[in-house]
Design brief:
The chain is α+β, with helices and mostly antiparallel strands. It is about 30% helix and about 25% strand.
Length: about 210
């Protein structure tokens, strides 16, 4: 007489469940070991990126002017430095928020100051310096832009100055020089408390297609 074998699915299910838990545990253990390694690697990469970046510029003292940008020899100057250089005098008339202004300024040509920093103009381009711009920053983050042709005596007659005095009254050392634009009929680009001059070219913006 044939014997009937009774299967016990509940036992099989329990065995399979235990096996699944064991396999899951092995996977979790491997993942948990991998996560700290990945985190440590990411942290190391971030630290390397930070350390490889450009070091921040040193804070400026009152009256100092930083000449920087796309130049080979960035430097910092003061009113004392400017007074020791050849001086140019200009008489100007312009309008401002205070009404008509008429003054005589003495100082150093902006072109000479920037030329000493050796701007990186592309000599392979015809009149490559005409792609250049100079940006002046003053107190309260006030900013004005000049095309290089405006300040280069080879292209323009204007005499943009870093003035050290107004009407024979010297500026205070802590205030720094004042940028003077004799060709302007309004005083918007007469930048007071000048603290930075930046030189660069427009190519990256124009060629990069930024709008």
């Amino acid at each position: 007489m044939p014997q009937h074998i009774r299967l016990r699915p509940s036992s099989w299910g329990a065995s399979l469940a235990v096996s699944g838990l064991l396999l899951t545990g092995c996977g979790a253990s491997a993942d948990s070991k991998a996560e700290p390694v990945a985190a440590a690697s990411a942290s190391a990469s971030a630290s390397a990126s930070v350390s490889a970046g450009p070091s921040p510029a040193a804070p400026l003292k009152p009256g100092e002017v930083r000449v920087a940008g796309q130049v080979d020899k960035p430097y910092t100057l003061t009113l004392t430095d400017l007074r020791a250089l050849p001086q140019t005098s200009v008489s100007v008339e312009f309008t401002s928020a205070k009404g008509p202004q008429k003054h005589t300024y003495k100082g150093v040509l902006l072109h000479d100051v920037l030329k000493n920093a050796q701007p990186r103009f592309d000599a392979s381009k015809k009149n490559g310096q005409l792609r250049g711009v100079a940006v002046a920053t003053g107190g309260g983050d006030y900013r004005a832009v000049f095309a290089w042709a405006e300040i280069d005596p080879g292209f323009a007659k204007s005499q943009v100055l870093l003035a050290v005095s107004e009407d024979d009254v010297p500026f205070e050392d802590a205030s720094g020089p004042r940028l003077v634009a004799p060709q302007d009929t309004k005083g918007g680009r007469y930048v007071s408390e000048l603290n930075q001059l930046w030189v660069g070219v427009v190519d990256p913006v124009v060629d990069g297609g930024q709008h």
